[in-house]
Known about the structure:
CATH architecture of the largest domain: Sandwich
CATH superfamily of the largest domain: Apoptosis, Tumor Necrosis Factor Receptor Associated Protein 2, Chain A
Oligomer: single chain
Number of helices: 9
Strand content: 25-35%
Mean pLDDT: 87
Bound molecules: zinc ion
Amino acid sequence: MSGKLPFGAASGGSDRKPSRAAAPLAGATSAAVAASPSGAGSNNELAALFECPVCYDYVLPPILQCQSGHLVCSSCRSKLTCCPTCRGTLGNIRNLAMEKVATTVMFPCKYVSSGCSVLLLHTEKANHEEACECRPYQCPCPGASCKWQGSLDQVMNHLTMAHKSITTLQGEDIVFLATDINLPGAVDWVMMQSCYNHHFMLVLEKQEKYDGHQQFFAIVQLIGSRKQAESFAYRLELNGHRRRLTWEATPRSIHEGVSSAILKSDCLVFDTSIAQLFADNGNLGINVTISMC
Length: 293
Ligand SMILES: [Zn+2]
Ligand SMILES: [Zn+2]
Ligand SMILES: [Zn+2]
Ligand SMILES: [Zn+2]
């Protein structure tokens, strides 16, 4: 009946790791190393030329220089009134030669200090860093109130210490009971579900995407990486009064978070009238089933 899983949320393909440039052979003379334009040494030296003098991130195209030719990255530039190197005017001078060179350089991922060893073309950098498993995890609680971030193995500890009000149910098949769904305004209901030796966070969010029209968004995220999330599926089901509404999908990873999925309605979405059809005394029960696939 429920048909195929809507796998639309899966991101395209696995991380493409560009092959690293070979390191210079041990014992090679310095002349031989310098003569090899594709060696790791020269790539790293080139990449270093693009370092922003303020934040040490890379200055990437479009590259603008000060009147004396100094570079600064675009995010620092927007906060500066003069060149950090020579105090001269920043101006709007493009450096097309550096932009051309930038297209040939393999830049390290910005999470290199957290253990990522990937080198990338600047055009691939932002996409990789967004999905990079070495990127710190943020607090998975919906809403932007908690600013905590840390590694994956610290997340559960953070949740139990800082978000004590979140209850946990054990088992792969549970009922997520949201109480007082008629509360006005934007409201989040959150619960944890533990099964298959993993922890899942269930989120029901009430939002007004446009004036006067409130909608509910229900979604499940795994306290784990995207790769781990791919081996699970979740089903949300509203049941009652001879009606049934079902949604099945791959859980999000808390690395991606739920807000972008909610924005795209890539979750169980229903409006207040449908909520009323299934609610009992202002309380809504959502059947949540997690399975391995
Ligand atoms: Zn900078
Ligand atoms: Zn300058
Ligand atoms: Zn990375
Ligand atoms: Zn938190």
